[in-house]
Write a structure and sequence with these properties.
The protein has helices at about 30-35, 50-65, 85-95, 110-125, 145-150, 150-155, 165-175, 215-225, 240-255, 265-275, 280-295, 310-330, and strands spanning about 15-20, 40, 70-75, 100-105, 135-140, 160-165, 190, 205-210, 230, 260, 300-305, 305-310. By secondary structure, the chain is of the alpha/beta class. The protein has two domains: about 15-275, Alpha-Beta Barrel (TIM Barrel); about 280-330, no CATH class. Helix 4 (about 110-125) links the parallel strand 4 (about 100-105) and strand 5 (about 135-140). The radius of gyration is 22 Å and the shape is globular. The mean pLDDT is about 95. Bound molecules: glyoxylic acid and magnesium ion.
């Protein structure tokens, strides 16, 4: 281990993250009843400018109307460059900070953005007699500037809990060519070398690539380096369950803890992909037992099912077992 010790952020289930427009309060109850691990009530881009003030009032009312304590609830505020943000923070926190776990900050560009919000939230917590640090931060990385400064951003506040890949705005910011939010692109392919088969037919193959691979990998590294949860963002074509699952599996393979759901139909898909399977949980338990036994016998590595496991395996196995416990508690 490094001599620099990074404290992990508060541990929460974050397999699915449901987006709910603040301008549609009729959807709040369904979101509250859903199996999403985290629900965020949105004041930002799903709300038209003319509806911003009404959406804020809806969100405050919605936070009081239901007992959110059995799930994690967040509010996405408007960006720091708008005329809405300060009132989003002041009004929502003054009226309902005790009901809220997190605020989600969009389009974070620099560590100073996080610092500014930290100062504002700290003052409100203090003025309201709330424990310092009650409100955690979810940060959306969705601009070229934010992606450039991602490491400083990740380490900018003790309130930081997670980094989210906002692929729609990221594509706009980097001018990536895309049609479906979070989808792939037929131009982003590798063509194998030109060869012919035994009959002289061209057998070049087309291999689709993932245009978001670099961005998401960078986000995973920055998040994990600072003890935060990396979370993949939206997938726009909510009729395409296979496409969503494939994107979620790629994100999970890289180390993400979850993915956004912009439609309730995507919640069970995310919950399934980001949960360890029963077989993985059993194996993790056996790894912990085997390593316990090895420690008692003064050995650092042992074989389990014909494969070497060592002290590094304990951490991975412990993560799986902890997640299984959280899932059981969530019911
Ligand atoms: C989310 O906010 C996105 O831009 O993808
Ligand atoms: Mg966005």
């Amino acid at each position: 281990m490094s001599f620099t010790i990074i404290e992990p952020a508060k541990s929460r289930l974050n397999r699915s993250q449901l987006a709910v427009p603040g301008s549609q309060p009729k959807l709040f109850e369904k979101a509250w009843q859903s199996t999403a691990d985290i629900v965020f009530l949105d004041l930002e881009d799903s709300v038209a400018p003319a509806d911003k003030v009404a959406a804020r009032a809806n969100v405050i009312q919605g936070l009081h109307a239901f007992d959110w304590s059995r799930k994690t609830v967040s509010v996405r505020i408007n960006g720091l460059d708008t005329a809405f943000m300060y009132r989003d923070v002041v009004e929502v926190l003054e009226a309902a900070a005790d009901k809220l776990d997190l605020i989600m900050i969009p389009k974070v560009g620099t560590a100073a953005d996080v610092y500014a919000l930290d100062m504002l939230v700290s003052q409100i917590e203090q003025a309201r007699g709330l424990p310092h640090g009650k409100i955690g931060f979810e940060l959306i990385i969705e601009t070229a500037l934010g992606m450039s400064n991602i490491h400083e951003i990740a380490g900018a506040s003790k309130r930081n809990e997670s980094l989210h890949f906002g692929v729609a705005d990221y594509a706009a910011s980097t001018r990536a060519r895309t049609t479906n939010v979070g989808g792939v692109n037929p131009d982003y392919v590798v063509l194998t070398d030109a060869t012919t088969d035994a009959h002289g037919r061209d057998n070049r193959e087309v291999h689709w690539g993932d245009p978001w691979h670099y961005a998401l990998s960078r986000l995973v590294v920055a998040a994990r380096a600072y003890g935060l949860r990396p979370v993949d963002g939206p997938f726009g074509d909510f009729g395409d369950a296979d496409g969503y699952q494939a994107a979620a599996r790629r994100a999970a393979a890289l180390g993400c803890e979850g993915k956004w759901a912009i439609h309730p139909g995507q919640i069970p898909l995310a919950n399934q992909v980001f949960a360890p399977s029963e077989a993985e949980i059993q194996r993790a338990r056996r790894i912990l037992e085997a390593m316990d036994q090895a420690a008692r016998e003064g050995r650092g590595a042992v074989a389990l099912d014909g494969r070497l496991i060592d002290i590094a395996s304990i951490k991975q196995a412990q993560t799986v077992v902890d997640k299984a416990r959280q899932m059981q508690q969530a019911g």
